Amino acid sequence: MPCKARLALLYSQFCSKDNVLILIDPDPDAIGSALALKRLLWHKVASASIGMVRKIRRLNNLTMVRLLHLPLLAVKRASLDKFDKFALVDSQPDHNELFQAVSFSAVIDHHPANTELTAPFSDVRPEFGSTSTIMTEYLRAAKIKPSKVLATTLLYGIKTDTRNFERHTLIQDIEAFRYLFPFADKNVLRKIEISDLSLKDLKLFHKAFERKHVVRDRIFVHLDEVPSADLLVEIAEFLLKIHDISWSIVSGVYEDNLIIVVRNDGYRKDAGKIVRLAFGALGAAGGHSAMARAEIPLSGLCDKIGKPNSVAIERFVRSSLSPFPKSKK
Ligand SMILES: [Mn+2]
User: Fold this and answer.
1) Residue 189 contacts by C-beta under 8 Å, 6 or more apart in sequence?
2) Per-residue pLDDT, 306
3) What CATH superfamily classification does 3-194 receive?
4) Are 26 and 56 within 8 A, CB to CB?
5) Second label for 113, Cα 20 to 30 Å away, from 50, 134, 270, 316?
6) Does the model's pTM come out above 0.85?
């Protein structure tokens, strides 16, 4: 169906008396898509609000909401009564308990549909890298020039879901990016993208700098108990910025598991294989050529290294990877 016809069909689901709630599970693609739908419905309905079914946790997304003053409401089942019509973007009704309780007038998404959609209007394109791409096509069909805020959120939605065009990317995603780029605030976008850390995380960076152990082109750090496994990734990726370091190996204990995060420069290396060989017998271990991870229950580690204290774990990680294990032929 041509985009103009789709747009007309979408509009035909709503009338000027409607108070519309656009429901989202708030990741960047969903937020950008919801803002686009809100803009499309402007002056077409009495009101269009965006409701989140959970709190935003990712610091990048919190930064986006704060810097761009995004109008997002936290909704519960009880607050649904205030609205006449509902739309869902970047999700399917069966993805969330609250979604299941709603009868949607419109569903626009790029996740494959598990169950048949009953909404009178649905536009699901699983081949698309992001829902923001689909929404950009609607904006163009409606001849709406996106505001700076809208373009920035849509651009971030496309970048996040396609991981900067490294996965599930169609030419349409790139075309939407190219179209939005001149309208977006690139400084704000950059600040959103780099806002991975909270102030208290710096303590762990401090510890990492003090504890680092360099063996030729490899840097090892063991950090004991950590408040989140994601922080190990942040630190591993930061240490790989050192120009002559080819491998960074950062470990820590999170929820009674030893977590080992490995990053390398990607040149003729296989981090996944090495991690599998070194730790596969003790827990979950694997990954890709440049990034890998192992998660080993501490209880299982005791047989191997005795009391799993800081020194013993550090020695265990380093000795398991120096030299790197080779597969037996
Ligand atoms: Mn998405």
Assistant:
1) 152, 155, 156
2) 87
3) inorganic pyrophosphatase (n-terminal core) (3.90.1640.10)
4) yes
5) 50
6) yes
